[in-house]
Specification:
By secondary structure, the chain is of the alpha+beta class. It has two domains: 202 residues, Ribosomal Protein S5, domain 2, CATH 3.30.230; 178 residues, Alpha-Beta Plaits (2-Layer Sandwich). It contains eleven helices and 13 strands. Strands 5-4-6-3-1-13 form a six-stranded mixed β-sheet, sandwiched between helices. Helix 4 runs antiparallel to helix 5. The longest helix is centred in the C-terminal third of the chain and has 23 residues. The model has no long low-confidence stretch (mean pLDDT 95). The structure holds 2-deoxy-2-fluoro-alpha-D-galactopyranose (GAF). 2-deoxy-2-fluoro-alpha-D-galactopyranose binds next to helix 5.
Amino acid sequence: MRNTIDLRSAFHARFGYNGPAPRVFFAPGRVNLIGEHTDYNDGFVLPVALEVGVTVLAAPRDDRCIRVHGLDFDQTVEFDLDHPGPGQTGRWTDYIEGVAHMVDARVQALRGADLLVAGDVPRGAGLSSSAALEIGTGFALLSLAGATVDRVALALAGQAAEHTFVGTRCGIMDQLVSACARADAALLVDCRSLAMEAVPLPGGPVAILVSDTRKKHALATSEYNTRRAECERGVALLRGALPRIRALRDVTEGAFAEHASLLPEPLVRRVRHVVTENARTQSAAEALRRGDVAAVGALFVASHRSLQHDYEVSCPELDTLVDLADAQAGVHGARMTGGGFGGSTVSLVDESALDAVMAAVRDGYRSRFGVEPGFLVTRGGEGAREIRG
Ligand code: GAF
C-alpha cells in the first residue's frame, strides 16, 4: 500500500482541499494459484489477494460530479453521475466511471466525490490492478454515501463495469478476490453459486513467488473474448449428447472423454482445458487443506501445460519463466497466472531456496530475452477495506 501521508498531501495539493481529512480505502491486486479461464465457465478458482493494490482517498462533494486524479498517470478527469459517458475510451478512467455508474444504479444514492487514486501493483503484470481500481473506488463511493458495502454485489458491479465500459467479457474471479479475500488464505470460489471458502496457505516454510515477464499482454482482450466464445460454442455442440449442461462446469472428465468427437479443432482442446482445470482446482484446494504442497505443485505443472498446449494462452516468455523455475531445487511447481499472453507466473517455493531461485530465474530469463523479470513474494493479503487512523 502507498504511504498515506504522502497521498494526503497530494490530495490537498491537487484539489485545493481544506475540509476534513479525506477517507482512505485500499483494494488489493491478485495472483491466481490455479483455476485459469474457468470462472466464466461457471467453474472453480483459487486466487490469493496481494499485499499491493490501489489506494483511494475520497472526500464527498455536494453535487453529483466525480472528480478523479490518478497519481500514477498525473491526470485529472471529471464525470457526472447523471450523464454517463459512452465508455470504452481506452483510458484508465473507464474502470472508475463504469463502476460508479453500476454502483449508483444499485444504491441510487451516490454523492459526488473528489478521489485520488494511486497504485503499487506492477503495471501490465496481469495482477489485476484494474479490478483493484474498480473495487477500491466502488468501496469508497459506497462508504461516502453511507451505504452498507455488500462485497459480492460490489464485485458484480465491477465485473459489469468491465463488460460495459471497458469491453472485456471477464469472469468474476478478480473482482471477487479483491473484495472478499482473507489474509493468509487462498479463496476457493464456486463461480456459479459464488460460494467462497478461505483455504489457509501453507505459510511458514513455503512462499508464493510471482515472476513478471514484463511483457505487455497486447492480444489479451481480443483473444480472451475469443476463448470465451469458443467455450460457449463447445457447450452448444456438447448439448447434442448432454442436453442438461448449462456450462462447461457441468461436463465431467468422463463425459468429455465419451463425447469429445463432437468437437472440432481447436474446440476439443479448449474444452479439455476447462474440464481438466476444474478438476485440478478442486484437487488443489483439497491438497492445500491437508498441507500437501508437493501435490499442489504437481497440479500447477499440469495446469501450465494445459494452458500452453490446449488453451493456447501462454507465450515464450511465460513458458521460459515456468521452465526455469521448475528446474530449480526448492520449487514445488510453477505456472502462468491470469489471462495470459504476457503478465506473470506463480510458483510455490521453499522459503530457504527463494534467493537462489530468483537469481537463477533472473539470469536465465535475461540471457534469453535481454530483460530482467520482476519478482514479488506474497503471503496472502486481505480484501478491500477502509484504512483508519
Ligand atoms: C482475467 C479475467 F479477468 C478473469 O475473470 C479470469 O477469467 C482470468 O483472466 C483467467 O483465469 O484475469
